[in-house]
Design brief:
The chain has ten helices and eleven strands. The protein is 50% helix and 19% strand. It is elongated and about 95 Å long. This is Diguanylate cyclase (GGDEF) domain-containing protein.
Length: 361
């Protein structure tokens, strides 16, 4: 009779676990955003199963970098997401790919802990997560109770959970990768014109709502055709990537730089007045002018022209801002050409006067 009661008790417990896992699965299958998936998944597991510590260790890989990068900045994931290497995961995972349960010699798992976290744990469960057949991370569960995750316990349900999570990761990452590619310039990796237009619409609405300034800058590479003609189109592509990286790395986190077309870029600078935007561009122009592109055996120097338009309190449409900045860019390039022509003329006159036999009036 005792054996039957024990069997029924275990069956009831397993049924309860299965129901909770089904609830988790139903919730996460409908999520289409990677950050939302991570936040929701960790919260559900922690609350459904009353586990004190639940976090993820993920390998930072190009396979899902576009989806992972925004998640790293999430305040909710700051202490629940650990970026590690595949080598660190292999050290603690079972070669067969089954979850690992441990309640002694726990120091070997410390490399999985999020930065600056020192969990006082008595036992831990580590389940591998995969993407396209490769280990990309682990789902980690820990408790202060040494009996919670014992090495001899069955890991069937945990394995099932890891499989479902891996499938959700694959679906969401594929979706976000498609969205990323649809909004990115393939050469420079910058947001493309479509993404620029959407962002500019949002920033104009924000400017109107809060009465804050918004600066937009049209940027053009001077004599880009000359670079193509002298060094070839591959060098021209490399130079555009060089300019894109310089612009991107020199701006604030809240700013945006997009490739508009050809050798033209557009900067969106929230909360910036015209003079502030001008200082930003002068600094960028100086940076580019002082850092040539090393291409093969050549040093390719470049310079920028720019035009600035400013919206105050959302009074201008995105199209009007772009048009105004484009016109300002044209005027800037024209003034530079005029100065260069005047300088060339003055130099020619000076050289002519210094020729032997010429008399200076």
């Amino acid at each position: 009779m005792y054996d039957i009661d024990l069997i029924l008790q275990n069956a009831k417990r397993n049924e309860e676990i299965a129901r909770k896992l089904f609830d988790v699965e139903v919730c996460i299958l409908s999520i289409t955003n990677f950050q939302d998936l991570l936040e929701r998944l960790l919260h559900l597991i922690q609350t459904k199963f009353q586990i004190p510590y639940v976090w993820l260790s993920l390998v930072k890989s190009r396979l899902f970098a576009p989806a992972l990068d925004p998640s790293i900045q999430s305040p909710r994931l700051k202490h629940r997401l650990n970026l590690t290497t595949r080598e660190n995961l292999v050290k603690v995972l079972d070669p067969e790919g089954t979850p690992v349960l441990a309640n002694d010699a726990l120091r070997r798992f410390y490399g999985l802990f999020p930065d600056q976290q020192a969990y006082a744990i008595g036992s831990i469960a580590v389940a591998p997560l995969t993407l396209d057949g490769h280990i990309i991370g682990t789902l980690n569960l820990a408790d202060v109770d040494p009996q919670r995750f014992q090495p001899d316990m069955d890991t069937f349900f945990l394995s099932q959970l890891a499989v479902k999570v891996s499938i959700c990761f694959s679906n969401v990452i594929s979706r976000e990768k498609l969205n990323y590619l649809a909004t990115r310039d393939p050469l420079t990796g910058l947001p493309n014109r479509r993404e620029l237009e959407l962002r500019l619409q949002r920033e104009c609405k924000r400017s109107s709502r809060y009465g804050t300034p918004l600066a937009l800058v049209f940027v053009d590479c001077d004599d880009f055709k000359g670079i193509n003609d002298q060094y070839g189109h591959d060098a021209g592509d490399a130079f555009l990537k060089h300019v894109a990286a310089t612009l991107r790395n020199s701006l604030r986190e809240e700013d945006m730089v997009a490739r508009f077309a050809g050798d033209e870029f557009v900067l969106v600078l929230p909360n910036q007045h015209k003079e502030e935007a001008r200082r930003v561009m002068e600094r960028l122009a100086q940076t580019l002018a002082s850092r040539p592109l090393a291409y093969e055996d050549h040093q390719i120097w470049g310079s920028l022209s720019f035009g600035i338009a400013v919206d105050r309190a959302g009074k201008k449409t995105p199209a009007a801002l772009l048009r105004e900045a484009d016109e300002a860019l044209y005027e800037h390039k024209k003034s530079k050409r005029d100065r260069n022509e005047a300088s060339s003329w003055q130099t020619a006159v000076t050289e002519d006067r210094e020729e032997p036999g010429c008399k200076t009036p």
